[in-house]
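Hi support team,

I've been running sequence recovery on a batch of backbones for a student project. Most finish fine, but this one hangs at about 90% for roughly twenty minutes before it completes. I'm not sure whether the input is malformed or the queue is just slow. I've pasted the structure tokens below so you can try to reproduce it. Let me know if you need the job ID as well.

Thanks,
M.K.
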């Protein structure tokens, strides 16, 4: 997925980073309750590094991957001890690890064109092979999205959402305004996401070898309607 240029990356970090920050305690609890209290975590779609930073505070080693160079630049400032890679979560070589996370609907972005689910299954199998026995995979997928506008001290963003139920696609058109000196710079991006049915996700995870559990939130952070998370475990 090409997107999250410098302006949208900045706006996402400044205005919407609370999702990752407030989810972190619940995510850390999920890791520890499922036997991953140390080791290497691969964060796919690491964004501006908010969750990678919290993983580091929790004592984990971190590899963060994001397709947006602008996001990786922000992540280097937030999580300087993490190994950060600019690349697609679909194509990156996954190292042997104890956990994989993908927070913030990244899988919905990566597999928007995968109508059959075959690419998703191949991805799940890659994650399974990378995980050590007893490892866990935590991720979330997109809900319906919201139209609206949001503002900060030096930015604003307008979001227009449309849905194609027949093709299970969600399109977000984002217009950002970011202050540069005394003026505001306008940027536009269009993002297409795949809306997955729970049964398709469960079936693909089972075929990859995982035992999976549906999540309605990460700790105290609860998902909106249609947005759900998954905890998938690799057996010992």
């Amino acid at each position: 997925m090409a997107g999250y240029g410098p302006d949208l990356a900045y706006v996402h970090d400044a205005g919407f980073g609370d999702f990752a920050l407030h989810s972190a305690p619940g995510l850390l609890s999920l890791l520890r309750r499922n036997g991953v209290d140390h080791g290497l975590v691969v964060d796919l779609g690491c964004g501006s590094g908010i969750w990678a930073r919290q993983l580091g505070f929790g004592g984990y080693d971190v590899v963060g991957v994001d397709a947006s160079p602008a996001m990786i630049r922000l992540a280097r400032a937030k999580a300087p001890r993490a190994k950060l890679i600019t690349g697609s979560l679909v194509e990156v070589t996954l190292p042997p690890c104890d956990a994989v996370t993908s927070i913030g609907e990244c899988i919905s972005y990566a597999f928007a064109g995968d109508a059959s689910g075959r690419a998703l299954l191949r991805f799940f199998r890659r994650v399974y092979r990378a995980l050590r026995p007893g490892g866990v995979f935590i991720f979330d997928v997109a809900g319906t999205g919201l139209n609206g506008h949001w503002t900060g001290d030096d930015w604003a963003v307008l979001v227009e959402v449309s849905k194609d139920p027949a093709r299970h696609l969600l399109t977000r058109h984002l217009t950002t305004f970011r202050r540069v000196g005394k003026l505001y710079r306008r940027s536009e991006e269009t993002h297409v996401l795949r809306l997955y049915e729970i049964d398709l996700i469960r079936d693909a995870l089972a075929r990859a070898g995982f035992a999976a559990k549906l999540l309605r939130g990460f700790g105290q952070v609860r998902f909106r309607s249609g947005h759900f998370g998954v905890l998938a475990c690799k057996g010992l």
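--
Follow-up from support: It reproduced on our side and the slowdown came from queue contention, not your input. The helical segments are 6-16, 18-33, 50-57, 69-78, 106-110, 118-130, 198-208. No action needed from you.
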